[in-house]
Amino acid sequence: MLKSFEHVGMTVSDMDRTVDFYCGLLGLSLVLRKTMANGMQVAFLDAGGGMLEVFAPPGGASRAVDVAEDTAGVRHLTFHFDSVDEVFARLEQAGVEIKERPRFAVHSEMLNKIAFVRDPDGIIVELAERSQSRQG
């Protein structure tokens, strides 16, 4: 029987920058960080309803490539916030790369307001407020 969503794994080029972005700017919590015998760094970042398992290879990694609409793959990571406008303003002030400014969501049954930014490796991150019917 399914209990919950556990985690998604991702590769990044620089663990420090990634932890600073996801924990320092978005508010995730660092649960575990260590370096494996082969030099690979790994961290678990708790988002409250699941985690990111982050891998940083010792030689770095190239920038993420967006998944085309006609290609299978993960298109973005979405995090739920009380106020998209507030977190967006904080990220913009910190110099985070903006993909799309805050707007009302097309799927208003699910989400009220959304915005899109890029993490330090170009991975698309969606900021979302839930619709009134999904509050809680």
Automatic annotation (TrEMBL):
Ranges where the VOC domain occurs: 4-130
Keyword match Metal-binding: yes
GO BP terms: L-methylmalonyl-CoA metabolic process
MF annotations from Gene Ontology: metal ion binding; methylmalonyl-CoA epimerase activity
Keywords: Metal-binding
Coiled coil feature spans: none
One family name in Pfam for this protein: Glyoxalase
The protein's name in its UniProt record: VOC family protein
Organism expressing this protein natively: Rhizobium leguminosarum
